[in-house]
Amino acid sequence: MRRAIFPGSFDPLTNGHLDILRRSLPLFDEIIVAILNNPDKAPMFTIEERLEMIAEILPKLDRSNCRVTVDQFSGLTAHFARERQAIAIVRGIRAVSDYEYELRMALMNRKLEPGIETVFLMAGEEFSYVSSTLMKQVLELGGRVEGLIPESVEARMRAKLSQNG
Ligand code: PNS
User: What is the mean pLDDT of the segment spanning 103-130?
Assistant: First the structure.
């Protein structure tokens, strides 16, 4: 049983995240999308909203033979991966600029849990500039983000923005 975790903030999930998830499906028997519950950050979406949004989208994935679930965690990613008996941590790389941070994180995670490998997957070029932060900024300022985030996520973002005035 090859289980991996795909950790992140997912505030919110973008099509870039989905691209990485799709690419990882043939590599593992099970993938847990693992949302970090970080009390230090003021997210746009609560952890419950993020869990719900991702759970809504997962059934639409063509999963090959991979089981995909979503969960939340607090504390260290490496410890969560160990608890779930994962063999790998999946992370996406969009551009060279991601690499340095991701490398440091991967090495630290390997120090913490030597038996768990980080697997870097290259995002599709069309998502190389997509980030949750940029999507929030563009929508907030009236720009269009079609094709960059799932429609259901965009609807929730718009609802949240109008709620917040
Ligand atoms: O989507 P993000 O914000 O790029 O995800 C970053 C995340 C959640 C993977 C990273 O911040 C993380 O692993 N945080 C948990 C704390 C931890 O394990 N820190 C040590 C890693 S070096």
Answer: 97
